[in-house]
Amino acid sequence: MTDPITLRASAETVAASLPALLAQADQLASTVIMGEHGRRRAGMGDHFWQYRPAQTWDEARLIDWRRSGRSDTTYVQDKEWQIAQTVMMWIDRSASMSFSSADSHPTKAARAGVLMTALSLLLLRGGERVGVIGADIPARRGEAQSMRIAEWVAQADGSDYGSPDDAGILPNSRAVYMSDFMGDLAPLETALTRAADRGVSGTLFQILDPAEEDFPFDGRTVFQSMGGSLRFETQKAGDLRTRYRERLAERKDRIAALARTAGWQYGTHHTGDSAQSALLWLYTATEQTR
Amino acid sequence: MVLFGTIGFTAPWLLVALIGLPILWVLLRAVPPAPIQRRFPGVALLLGLQEKEVETDRTPWWLLVLRALAIAGLIIGFAGPILNPETRSAGSGPLLIIADGTWADAPDWSMRLDQIESKIAEAARNERTVAVATLTDLPTDLPFMSADVALRSVANLSPAAWDVPETAANWAAAQNGSFDTYWLSDGIDRDVRGDILAALQDRGTVTVFETNRPVVGLRPAVIDGATVTLSATRTHGGQADYTAHAIGLDPAGIERELASAPIIFADGETGTTTEFDLPPEQRNRVTRFVISGINSAGAVTLTDDSLKRREIALVSGGTSTESLQLLSPLHYLREALRPNADLIELPLTDAIPANPDVIVLADVATISPLEIELLTDWIEQGGMLLRFAGPRLAAAEFSIEADPLLPVRLRSGGRSVGGTMSWGEPKTLAPFAENSPFAGLPIPADIAVSAQVVAEPDPTLSSRVIAQLTDGTPLVTRDTLGAGQIVLFHVTANAEWSNLPLSGLFVQMLERLSVISGNTEPSAEILAGSFWTPAQILMADGTLRSGADLAGTTGEDLAAFTPSADIPPGLYTSEDRAIALNVIDAERQIAPATWPADITVETITDAPETPLMGWFLAAALALLFVDIIATLGLSGRLRGGIVAAFIAAMMMPNDAQAQSDAAAIAATSNVVLAHVITGDAAVDDAAFAGLYGLSDTLTRRTSIEPDTPVGVNIETDELSFFPLIYWPITANQPMPSRDAYSKLNDYLRSGGMIVFDTRDADFAQYGTTTTEARKLQAIAAGLDIPPIERMPADHILTRTFYLLQDFPGRYNGRDIWVEASVNAGSEIDGMPFRNLNDGVTPVVIGGNDWAAAWAMDDTGRFLFPVGRGNAGARQREIAFRFGVNLVMHVLTGNYKSDQVHVPALLDRLGE
């Protein structure tokens, strides 16, 4: 990366993909109608919540004279408590995410990138603070943050399978992890436990390629991981299908169990399906955990 | 050429290469198919797994066999194998090629032409001169010409529908010079064959060609009571099943098959019969019987009057007279007619509606005006009224005005001659005139007429007389009325006035008048003096053509019943009568031809020379193709898509049919909701997902459990399978074609419901018109949509399952339009809703984008957000409830409109 020519070239590649990513995410985000999320209780905010009789500690300027004029007591307007939340996100940028079994659907990394950027756009527009876990991007407000996130999303890290981190998660904030969770589950478990300890609730979102779900292979095959670190040869791939699926189901169960223990939500998405329903689910899940 | 049994090779030295096959075996065995390298993140889950069956790294044995066979096929193919190679003998001198050319040749005539052509080609190679002829169409002299000229005349040969004439023997005897003969026999034995053979053998060697094919012939149908018996004959052969069809005109006058029956020959049997059980009315319409699948005149038998039974109504004057049986005016008529006609004896007014062919009035003098009217109508439409005189007729006061149903005016009283109280002798019949229908009938000398009714002299009288007595007084008179005729016998129908009814002449006269028709072939005397014209001519291949261009023939010639070039087989008519001249008559038994031992008889069973090179190469290619697929399959490179594409390419036409059948079965085996495919992928997907969500909701909440919804193409798909079609309107969808409109209208009229959704309620309120709304107007212009109105608050859609007042989708527009209620009764006090019209509204028109609100993916996630927060969730819920109500409405109709449910509904409304 020190070679300036290489640096320039890769920077240009990244920059070139950014507008497309942002545009795609923007388009996706626009399908979800934004609503301000009040806390459904009195507190600091702009919106009217309720009238209550003025107490001794209420300043006189807070009294709503228009309401008070209609009765004998004086009333004060309570506003609805509105508070900005911090949502920290992480996506797996490892080599295994760059897998796509067919031209008709994108790679897992591309889908995860679009979903993450779109979700962050939505949250940022809703006035939340969004940051990236394990990167040097702390939670901030404003549209400019989406640019930073998109930049980060577009870069791949070198590992074969991703391992989630919990660096930079603020206590009592929200977190979103997106990955195929194909690698070792121990780092995830650690990260999740530590996050839960700090009162963080969130979402585990598993993105899988349809081929990874179905295992449509047959015959004599040499399987290699995307980074090339793992290698497995079989004479009859079709013979392994059932057991592969069993193992995958087992893994899903384990992640779901992890999420349940930590009080998190767990969702699965296939790159063959539409990104829109995934985003809607993610958004609702994030909304519910708030 | 080297021969191995029946297979010869043109290049046998190539077969040496077969030695190389074992080497190939060893080579191929050593090289297994290579593995595929595949990048796959899921490999982490695979580590440590063992396949249950371990296959060798070697190529499997069956693949080796496949390849070895393919190579062997190639080698043998290029060695030029030929099945049944021919060894040919030459000849010299002129060659006469003669074919029988009868109806029996017709089924395989083209094969015979090929045989003749190959014989001519062979003669050309040997530089022989050739003459070609058929025995049914004999040339006056035999022009031997060069082979290539003779080849041109082959196309002119055609089989005839009759047999080899007797004159052929004379023709053969008249030939001179020396020539060899190649005789293509039709395989039927006939007397004249021996003479011809002897004459030809005098001229040179004779070679006979015959096919092994049995010749099948159909004898004329014979009627026996209610059944028609059909017998078939054949030369030889094993067990064979044929089907005989009775062909005739249906009531609409169109020729079609009326009945069929199997004709089964047991092994070695040469004759068999089958029976048709036809009702008389249908039997009278049969024009011919054919054996299907045999294109020969012998397999066709035409029917004529002999198969028809006429329906004759007998009415006599004095029904109440208790006279002796033999004195009954109808007794002799009954006896004469019964064998050949169906008789009905009813009062006149009941007999006419039965529409008989002939009505016989025996001594009926008084006919009521109503009966006259009915009878006149019936005669004008072709009926035949046959009247006999008698005491009552003689006693009546006559005028032609009083009784128009008499051909001549009668003098009152009649006359009596030759009786005990009169002077003269009983009168006999004069010979029949030339123009009389009875012309030619012999008159027995002992017929005597002792009493008769007498016609008034009249200028038209002589033209109406068709039989008279020796003194010139009319005995039988006839007049036409419309398409029918009235015939009056001036004597009684019993033996009271004359002994005519006792004679055979009486029956013959009735036959000539076509009152009855003979059951058997008409005899020469009945045919004598008549003239017959061919109406239809039977061709050698069993087809019929009009005989209008042929000259007629006399009854005497026809009486021989032998078809020939002058009298081709066919249907001959004379006045109202018809006679069929068939190729095979009732007695004929066709037998196979027998030849003397010194004659060489070639048959077609000698298999023709067939080069097999193409077959071997094609088989090798096919094997190699299978090899490709097998290799791909072994190495895992064969994906479902490739196989599916290949199979689809192989069986495209069948598959499309099977697919549409499968779709139809899927659509009808359960309730299936459908949406119209608009061509806009996003809208179509949303519509599908919406109906999917609605189907899911219905399954969970109601007893309606629909299958997966389908998209329908209104141009090509069948709509009637679907109870409800959701039609999202897009601004640029194509207009339906005229066919699609008629299909849609049929659908709407037959109880289907289309939900039009313009999806524009978010900005189309308060009278603004969107492009979608304009498109809907354009589309709906061609549809048969009844008057519509805004959905009233008490419409049945508000209470078919859920009680609703809002019908939101993704948007909450107000206006939903449904079929206007026709007889909207006024609101009854105490009733929450009016008694609106019956039936299902055929259309629901709105713009709330319901599909988007219902849209769900297969994991149950909603695809489109609706509203905000809890209010949005409520709106989606109401949208689902509206969808449930819609489907309930379609499936249950006005069930909930039934006032029976009012108390229960009132109860619930009050809560």
UniProtKB/TrEMBL annotation, chain A:
Q: Name one Pfam family in it.
A: DUF58
User: What positions does the domain DUF58 occupy?
Assistant: 50-252
Cited InterPro entries: DUF58 (IPR002881)
Entry superkingdom: Bacteria
Query: Per its UniProt record, what PANTHER family does this chain match?
Result: BLL2464 PROTEIN
Q: Output this protein's name.
A: DUF58 domain-containing protein
Species name for this entry? Marivivens niveibacter
From TrEMBL, chain B:
Alphabetized, the UniProt keywords read: Membrane, Transmembrane, Transmembrane helix
Which residues does the UniProt record annotate as the domain DUF4159? 673-891
Record bears the keyword Thylakoid: no
Tell me any Pfam family this protein matches: DUF4159
Q: Which residues form the Aerotolerance regulator N-terminal domain?
A: 7-81
Cited SUPFAM superfamilies? Class I glutamine amidotransferase-like
Q: Which residues cross the membrane?
A: 12-31, 61-83
Q: Which domain of life is it from?
A: Bacteria
Q: What is this protein called?
A: LytTR family transcriptional regulator
According to its UniProt entry, this protein's organism is: Marivivens niveibacter
